[in-house]
């Protein structure tokens, strides 16, 4: 029997998950779950298809979804990771042990999309199916962590399915789950990354003793009490102190520092509580005194710690960066701190608490800055107007196609950047458009050397990021940056803003989904003259989105300055 979850059903019928939930509540004849859990039930695909036909709900099973469903049906969900890894073996030409019916579908999918994109699609579906068990670093955060690391040969001692290592020149990884380690190795190999991934518990059984990487990136498991406190009490990795039983994250920090070369960088994701828990204050103090802790960056639900393994005889820095921001502002703040290291004095942190929470130090601004920010917010808020849209009593009956069909018909071409994050620098021959530039609508901020295979952006191209940001590019000449996708249109038949709007509206580029899903985004078949009014409205909505983001940033700073001014007595 082939099983599907609520997300699969939503994709089949091209509706949102909420619609599937409504069908389950309102229709007594909707198929009952045949497996899974109460929170994540599984349904029989045959029963769901029968129900959709009976109720006049159009649906389509794509080649990719059919392959995924048959692969998933080849075993039970407890061994789903092994099935995905076996699919990777087949796509790379190795024996897989999968049944002929499944391998035939895999071969067809690879012929349609290529082995790498086919395997990435399966990985996306696997993560979605096991979202409660698999913790995968979001693509935009992974890109930032890789950039902060400085590149080179990377090590990730808790690598999961390898997301943090995909942009490396060379990589070492270790993962507790054997199937996840196999998947990570395949993902690296398919990208041509020289890497080695082993299975095992990094803290108890280090897979790379004696190895020293250029940098370590890590998104370790949080709050794991059974991490080996007793058996590892005398471990030489604890240079800065024995991690308390309830502080496994400080064990991971020291493990990462032990596996990076002198002068190398560690970028590790930490729970915010690790910055202030009393039990960890001695280790935090030693990290500060030794010059290892260089920055703590608050990102909402988690903190990024940037550490550097001191070189012999090196004088510890006197300042540490304490920064509260978002993904778009972290890199500029870090560059500025490296040029002019004005942060929080280490001596101010070495009190009884050794609290390195960035929010403690986010107290910038003067009354004059408050007034300027207030005026800036008023101006930004005044531009928050949308397009003039009419309302129809009945929706238009439009003849729809998909982005994939438009590509097959020659109306557009899809290009995926092969550039890796470590190829982008502060200087070079050609400008590079990054994901942050697309998000902020700014000019290209990176540089790279000229090389074969680079995709040069032209005016009117539509560019998307893995996080789902879509933007029409106005200026030509920059190179498409890492992990970005470009849609080049035939301007005589397709309007750029029209396509960009439906990409945003279609949900195929929503956070956490594969870029491949964009090919299924539905687009009306309309002549160019009828596309343009749609494009104009979509463009105005995109401008409203940008204006709202700008107003939000100004509003957040206005609130912070107002709170600080009132609390300090500088404002009435």
UniProtKB/TrEMBL annotation:
GO biological process: DNA restriction-modification system; methylation
PROSITE patterns, per database record: N6_MTASE
CDD domains, per database record: AdoMet_MTases (cd02440)
InterPro entries in the cross-refs: DNA_methylase_A-5, DNA_methylase_N6_adenine_CS, SAM-dependent_MTases_sf, Type-I_RE_MTase_Subunit
Pfam families in UniProt: N6_Mtase
Record keywords, A-Z: Methyltransferase, Restriction system, Transferase
DNA repair in keyword set: no
Gene3D superfamilies assigned: Vaccinia Virus protein VP39
Chain ranges of the DNA methylase adenine-specific domain: 117-299
Domain of life: Bacteria
Any one GO molecular function term: N-methyltransferase activity
Record's protein name: SAM-dependent methyltransferase
Organism of this sequence: Acrocarpospora phusangensis
């Amino acid at each position: 029997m082939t099983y599907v979850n609520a997300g699969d059903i939503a994709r089949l019928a091209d509706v949102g998950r909420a619609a599937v939930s409504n069908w389950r509540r309102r229709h007594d004849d909707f198929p009952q779950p045949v497996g899974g859990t109460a929170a994540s039930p599984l349904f029989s695909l045959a029963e769901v298809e029968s129900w959709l036909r009976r109720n006049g709900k159009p649906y389509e099973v794509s080649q990719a979804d059919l392959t995924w469903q048959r692969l998933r049906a080849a075993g039970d969900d407890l061994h789903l990771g092994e099935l995905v890894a076996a699919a990777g073996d087949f796509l790379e030409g190795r024996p897989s042990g999968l049944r002929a019916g499944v391998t035939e579908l895999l071969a067809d999918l690879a012929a349609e999309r290529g082995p790498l994109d086919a395997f990435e699609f399966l990985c996306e579906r696997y993560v979605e199916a096991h979202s409660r068990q698999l913790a995968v670093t979001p693509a935009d955060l992974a890109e930032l962590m890789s950039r902060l690391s400085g590149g080179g040969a990377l090590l990730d001692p808790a690598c999961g399915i390898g997301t943090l290592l995909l942009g490396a020149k060379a990589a070492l990884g270790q993962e507790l789950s054997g199937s996840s380690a196999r998947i990570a190795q395949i993902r690296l190999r398919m990208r041509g990354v020289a890497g080695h991934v082993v299975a095992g518990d990094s803290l108890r059984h280090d897979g790379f003793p004696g190895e020293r990487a250029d940098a370590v990136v890590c998104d370790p498991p949080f709050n794991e009490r059974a991490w080996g406190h007793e058996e590892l009490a005398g471990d030489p990795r604890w240079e800065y102190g024995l991690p308390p039983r309830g502080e496994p994250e400080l064990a991971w920090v020291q493990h990462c520092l032990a596996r990076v070369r002198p002068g190398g960088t560690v970028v590790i994701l930490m729970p915010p509580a690790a910055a202030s828990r009393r039990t960890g204050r001695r280790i935090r103090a030693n990290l500060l005194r030794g010059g290892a802790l260089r920055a703590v960056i608050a990102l909402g639900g988690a903190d990024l710690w940037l550490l550097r393994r001191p070189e012999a005889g090196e004088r510890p820095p006197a300042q540490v960066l304490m920064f509260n921001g978002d993904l778009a502002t972290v890199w500029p703040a870090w560059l500025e701190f490296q040029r002019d290291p004005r942060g929080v004095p280490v001596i101010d942190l070495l009190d009884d608490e050794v609290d390195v929470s960035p929010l403690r130090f986010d107290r910038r601004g003067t009354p004059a800055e408050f007034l300027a920010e207030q005026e800036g917010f008023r101006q930004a808020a005044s531009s928050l107007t949308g397009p003039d849209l009419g309302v129809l009593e009945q929706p238009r009956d439009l003849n729809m196609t998909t982005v994939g069909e438009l590509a097959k018909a020659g109306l557009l071409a899809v290009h995926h950047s092969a550039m890796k994050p470590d190829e982008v620098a502060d200087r070079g021959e050609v400008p590079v458009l990054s994901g942050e530039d697309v998000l902020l609508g700014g000019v290209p901020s990176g540089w790279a050397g000229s090389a074969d295979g680079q995709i040069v952006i032209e005016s009117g191209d539509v560019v998307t990021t893995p996080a789902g940001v879509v933007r029409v590019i106005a200026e030509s000449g920059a190179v498409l940056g890492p992990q970005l996708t470009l849609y080049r249109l035939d301007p005589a038949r397709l309007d750029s803003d029209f396509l960009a709007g439906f990409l945003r509206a279609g949900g195929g580029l929503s956070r956490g989904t594969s870029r491949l899903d964009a090919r299924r985004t539905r687009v009306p078949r309309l002549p160019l003259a009828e596309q343009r009014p749609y494009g104009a409205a979509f463009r105005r909505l995109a401008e409203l989105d940008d204006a709202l983001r700008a107003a939000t940033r100004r509003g957040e700073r206005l609130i912070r300055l107002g709170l600080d001014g009132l609390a300090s007595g500088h404002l009435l």
